[in-house]
Design a protein that fits this description.
By secondary structure, this protein is an alpha/beta fold. It is built from 11 helices and 10 strands. It comes from Novipirellula aureliae.
Length: 305
């Protein structure tokens, strides 16, 4: 599967994460802190880096900043814990592509790594020798299937890669934001699920029959007549991505607020956390059934003091 550099100063957590990753077929090189992890990257380029945030020598935030500066195409996933929320917010703003709470390593680490790997493969699938996609614009209409999220998001990444806009890491982050918006539109917008509905977390974690239950729900009245609309426009100065749905539910989830301790632990908050971290601007319509996400092509990642 993927080659992973794992940075974690706790031997217990390092062994746990390494065993989880290796159980999914990944090749793992462990490092005790960010500096050692950076040395591992320099020795042999991995497919991605998974890092804790609080470490000696070089913490996870400093590692993310260095990787973005030196290896802008290398994706990084950060592992969050209570008390490290500020570092996590800064790491996501700087260039990390996703986060996994330590309390949910067993269920969320490998899915996050798999999605990152697939998105990265989509980005790399386009070769510059094939030409350049000039000012692409397209409209993608999706049914209410969670299985449609990854293919649609990967299509966006491939289009951005063909357009030659931004670094690979930025394109991956946009793909993550798109996937999050699509998930919210399907579950909260069209299927009208409530935040506390256990099927949401269970579907994400692939527990039980939750995904099948949501698939069957989507095929009943009135949900089967509702669609999600994905529109992408890549201009010279920015990329604008609209995600809208036909149902009455709201795409935005602002309680608890993104960046708070609770927002890193509740799955219904993940989408807005990633969207607000990865995109430069969000524009909602009046009833929150559409969001336009804007990414400036000239925007540079700023250092976090």
């Amino acid at each position: 599967m993927a080659s992973v550099v794992l940075c974690e100063d706790s031997p217990t957590h390092s062994v746990l994460m390494q065993s989880i990753l290796e159980a999914d077929g990944h090749s793992v090189r462990a490092a005790a802190d960010g500096r050692e992890g950076l040395e591992q990257v320099e020795q042999a380029m991995p497919d991605m880096v998974v890092t804790d945030l609080r470490m000696p020598e070089m913490n996870g935030l400093e590692l993310v900043r260095t990787i973005v500066d030196r290896y802008p195409d290398l994706p990084t996933i950060v592992v969050t814990a209570r008390g490290s929320e500020d570092l996590a917010v800064d790491a996501l703003a700087l260039g990390a592509v996703n986060f996994v709470p330590k309390a949910s390593l067993n269920v969320l680490l490998n899915p996050a790594v798999r999605r990152t790997l697939r998105f990265s493969q989509s980005d790399q699938s386009y070769h510059s020798s094939a030409g350049k996609l000039v000012l692409p614009e397209f409209y993608y209409k999706l049914r209410n299937s969670l299985d449609s999220i990854n293919p649609a998001s990967r299509f966006v990444i491939e289009a951005l890669s063909a357009a030659g806009k931004m670094t690979a890491n930025v394109r991956l982050r946009i793909g993550m934001a798109v996937a999050s918006a699509l998930f919210n539109s399907i579950c909260y917008g069209n299927l009208e699920l409530q935040d506390e509905d256990p099927r949401i977390a269970n579907a994400i974690h692939r527990k039980g029959d939750s995904r099948q239950e949501l698939t069957e729900l989507a095929q009943t009245h009135p949900y089967r007549k509702r669609f999600v609309h994905l529109k992408v426009s890549v201009g010279e100065d920015d990329t604008r991505i609209s995600v809208a749905h036909d149902g009455p539910g709201r795409i935005a989830r602002f309680h608890p607020a993104p960046g708070t301790a609770e927002s890193f632990e509740l799955e219904q908050c993940r989408g807005m956390m990633l969207i607000t971290s990865f995109m430069d601007e969000m524009i909602f319509n009046g009833d929150y059934t559409e969001v336009v996400m804007v990414k400036q092509h000239h925007a540079m990642v700023e250092s976090v003091c």
